[in-house]
Write a structure and sequence with these properties.
The chain is α+β, with helices and mostly antiparallel strands. The protein is 33% helix and 24% strand. It is built from 6 helices and 8 strands, in the order βαββαβαβαββαβα.
Amino acid sequence: MTKYLALLRGINVSGHNMIKMDALKKMLENMGFQNVETYIQSGNVFLDSEEENAASVGFKIKQEISKEFGFDVPVIMVSKTDLELCFKNNPFLKEKDCDTKKLYVTFISKELAPLAINDLKISNFKPDEAAIDSSRIYIKYAVGAGKTKLDQKYIEKKLSAFATMRNWNTVTKLLEMYNG
């Protein structure tokens, strides 16, 4: 069995794409996944599967959500290594007096070229800052996520990929949960 973390994009946000975690858990268990555990209402789901291909697991979950709940929800599969790299490679954590309340990680559905940061035109969003690391974008908001145009929709449009964003507290908790 392999333990997976599925990040569902855009569920239970501002009253849209509402899925109760109990219903999601039941759906996943009915699909044959084991040890299904959700964390908060924003679509963080741990599960065990005999399937060895993470992308296949994500695709199956996406298809079943569409069938069961009637809407399209992109699913980004995140490994324990992905989360560990968030701590190792996030340049903003190295700053003196780092305010983790302003840090976010955007998980992207594909590997990004190092120069993809140019596509985001980050200089247009100063004083917000961002750095790309493979399929993750580390963001440090000057004021907060609700006060910027450097958001998930903008990132998806500029990079032609699905993205889902989590605050630093959630990333920290998800790694703790992976470690069990």
